[in-house]
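Table S2 (continued). Query chain:
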Amino acid sequence: MSGRRDRPVILAALLFLLAGPALAAEADGARPQMEYIATHVWREPDADFGGFSGIEVSEDGSQFHVITDRAWIRWGRIERDSAGRIRDLTTLGRAQLQDSQGRPLPPGRLGDSEGLAIATDGTIYVSFEGLNRVARYDDPDGPATPLPIPEEWAELVTNEGFEALAITDDGDVLTLPEYAPDGRSFPIWRYRDGAWAQPFSIPGDPDWQAVGADMGPDGRLYLLERNFRWLLGFRSRVRRMELTETGPQQIETLLTTSTLQYDNLEGIAVWSDDLGIRITMISDDNFLPVQRTEVVEYRIIDPTP
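Corresponding output:
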């Protein structure tokens, strides 16, 4: 009788031992999930509205700065419902970016502003893709302070320059070209202590172009990439990684969208609400009536350790 009573215990132990490796493998293979929150179509009547290529969102998700590829910057308030979904974006101010002499930048080669990053002290950094450069703005209504331009940047192909721009909590400005020059990796340029250096690269893919970047509240770099398929439309991808002095580590793909799922997403902002890290992306409508300005938000659900 005692042997029969022991059988369920033995059987349970065997099942646990058999399931153990499978459970461990499942835990090792756990991946973060992307929870879709909402898409807001943003419209305003101003002639300079549209063409948004960069976005920054405040730490509490209530304020925004956006930049267009025609050298305009605007800022304002984000209104949300009780579930945290965007109800409206209200512009509170806007300015045409200036050169270092205080002259308004015209659309085109000199005014092709693409990347936006804001330091913890409020200093604004903008990357330009026509004449490849990065400028600092202490006041969006004031003249630019150009950062030095490395000789290597002259080799970048026109319209394939710096769309992605980010800044770390330590004040390092990071940028990378839209296209991987060798088709395999994106060189990361870092501005630190008054000088640019190219300390490492990010693995790339010839099908994907780097169009936006931001440092998240977790200290990791988030990279927004685009795949343009001509008549089939746009696809988007978001990757994140830890940055070390020797290069990126733990690179993971968080999101890959379907063709025509969203418009031409070019700007990305990463922040945190009470439930986790959020990603806010904005589309560039190229000032075309067949496109639209979309603000798309996701929340990252990381696996429990």
